[in-house]
Amino acid sequence: MDKDIESLQNILKDDPSNFQARRELSILLVNNGFNEEAEGNLRYLIKYFPDDAELYYNLGIVYEKLKKFQKAGECYQKAVNISPQEDFYYNLGEVLVELKEWDRAIDAFRKVLETDSNDGNCYFNLGVCYFNKDEKNLALDNFQKAVDINPQDVFAYFYLGYIYQNNGLTNFAIESYKKVLEISPDYSWAYFNLGSIAYKSGNVDEAKEYLLKTIQYNSNDIEAYKLLTKICLKQNEVEEILEILHTRLEKEENGDLYYCLARVYKFAGRLEEYDENLKLALKNPYTLTFPKDIVTKEYSNAEAKIGRHQEIEPEAEISEFEEESDEDFEGEEENSAETEEYSEPQEDEEDEEDTDDSENDEEYDADFDEENMDEEDEEEELEEIEEEDELGDEDT
After folding, report:
1. How far apart are CA 351 and CA 322, in angstroms?
2. In angstroms, rounded to a whole number, what is the distance separating the alpha carbons of residues 229 and 249?
């Protein structure tokens, strides 16, 4: 292949106006990843052949590979204006998805389906567009058509599962996620979502099994560690979750995981380790999604107890992390040779404030009440005076 490129380049050295050689060279450069060189040759050709749709189409491919999606879209649009071919419309639709121009993308994919009603990739992409437009029923219909045409479309099944899950159709969601795993047994997000469903349904052992599979295939899924922490504390499996968290933190520091460790040590009544991991959580603010004011308050309380040589009693149970509504799911997915980006359902953030009332907290509250008593009395007196004034106005 390199010899073909070299021979064509030699031809052009001798005859720069050999357009056929330049066209062939451009295609070879595109196919072999020499995108900048391909761009230069295609732009040169377009000067002489401004009505050649194939040239615009190939230049669009180059810009797409260079992640210049706006320019790619302009080239594909010129191609379809000159010659409305199926491939041109399809590539235009995919670039418009990248640009989040959902309505224009829908129009482009509909054009493809006018000539090929069995294009499963088009139905998948239409599903993505409608999903992002929050038209979930239309998204569901198109993802279902995608898997009807291509039963191996793992990403369409994942979207189906997610929509079913958020519509409360748990059994359909489970079925879809299990289909994902039949096709792709290492698909970590499917394990995570199955674990979330099992946990919310009270099937804690099943949830744990799915979450362990999640981190087996994706050790960077922090939400899986957070949910595993909840489960292990419910089951009093302190040493197991400590080993899991420490093993992950040896790979990379993470504020959320340090906070999880802190909660485990608090659960076990180990004040020094609790305090140390709260400090480490605060030292990693960019990966700490738990409310920093809560973590800071816990750390201050722990420091105060250490200063007074106090201990913390092991907890019979630990309070749940605060449950929040499902967020958009995040991550990178592919359909066929192309890549789509979308978000994964995130498990809930964290916990309410520490309910461990120390003597110091009680003293602080009492002092606060005393300090504000005078202000409250003054406010009451002002209110009484205002009431008297109003009554006086009415009498007059």
Report:
1. 5
2. 14
Does 20 or 231 have the greater pLDDT score?
Answer: 231
CA 218 centroid distance within chain? 14
| pLDDT surpassing 60 at residue 318 | no
Section 360-388 average pLDDT: 40
Domain ranges of the chain: 1-117
How would you classify the pairing of strands 330-335 and 338-343? antiparallel
CATH class of domain segment(s) 1-117: mainly alpha
Rounded CA-CA distance 101/50 in Å is: 27
The pLDDT, as a whole number, for residue 14 is 66
In this prediction, residues 2-27 reach a mean pLDDT of 73
CA distance 140 to 309: 59
What whole-number distance in Å separates Cα of residue 247 and Cα of residue 268?
19
Confidence of residue 220 (pLDDT cuts 50, 70, 90): very high
pTM given for the model? 0.74
Nearest by Cα to 46 from 15, 73, 79, 84: 79
- Mean pLDDT taken over the chain: 81
Residue 14 is which amino acid?
A: D
Among the listed residues 187, 151, 194, the one whose alpha carbon sits nearest the alpha carbon of residue 170: 194
SS3 of the chain: the string is CHHHHHHHHHHHHHCCCCHHHHHHHHHHHHHCCCHHHHHHHHHHHHHHCCCCHHHHHHHHHHHHHCCCHHHHHHHHHHHHHHCCCHHHHHHHHHHHHHCCCHHHHHHHHHHHHHHCCCCHHHHHHHHHHHHHCCCHHHHHHHHHHHHHHCCCCHHHHHHHHHHHHHCCCHHHHHHHHHHHHHHCCCCHHHHHHHHHHHHHCCCHHHHHHHHHHHHHHCCCCHHHHHHHHHHHHHCCCHHHHHHHHHHHHHHCCCHHHHHHHHHHHHHCCCHHHHHHHHHHHHCCHHHCCCCHHHHHHHHHHHHHHHHCCCCCCCCCCCCCCCCCCCCCCEEEEEECCEEEEEECCCCCCCCCCCCCCCHHHHHHHHHHHHHHHHHHHHHHHHHHHHHHHHHHHHHC
Residue type, 316: A
